[in-house]
Amino acid sequence: MESVAIWQYIYFGTALRYFQDVQEGWPVHGENFILDNLDSFLRRLKEFALPVTERAAVDLRVIREELAETDAQHKLTSDEAKRLAQEVKDVRNTCEAEARGKMAFIVTDKRLDVLKLLADVRGLMAPGVFDSLPDVAQYDLLEAGKCIAFERPTAAAFHLLRATEGVLRHFYCSIVRRGRVDPMLWGAMVQPLRKRKKAPPVELLDNLDNIRRSFRNPTQHPDKIYDVQEVQDLFGLCVDVVNRMVTSPHWRSLS
Q: Global pTM?
């Protein structure tokens, strides 16, 4: 998966239009002139994964090499202009046919910032929190952001809850040095934390229990399907408890 600015496609189309209008006397060299536009057009055939059009453009590449050998002040002759226009017309026909088989998908706006979901999940958390998380929790939060952006909400919920449980395990081990529960299951970790003399805030523990009962358990089993609005709410709940755990005085490095 890679992101491509819509402007790149617009620019690609303007290059095609430019060559359809090509005329005798147009400058060959220099920025935004014939060679510059040819190079941009040919490069984008590869970038946009149009292999059939790339092969059809072989004669266009020949013209490009011939024009590149002309002097810096060269302007298109009548024959060069006609030949270039014809080759571009042929390539355009192939490009149109191939492009009909390509699909582009637009990421729609969400309540959460889509650009942050795709590339800056740490920016949706309290400062410094993301970088303090275990590697697997970081991975799951990054994946959750992408899943929300691309509207795969149930998959996003799995990643969010895995991330939260991973952070809870780290938090639990930061506090409990001896006699840890085995296996370290969500509910089994929260209950002994409540009984400690210097227990974490009750609001945090209540929120963790609520997420476990209301979301983690039904999601773990085939009982729950999310929509994109629900999973954005869940994102907020999970990020809240993660922020609270990491900024708690109990949190420490386990490395």
A: 0.80
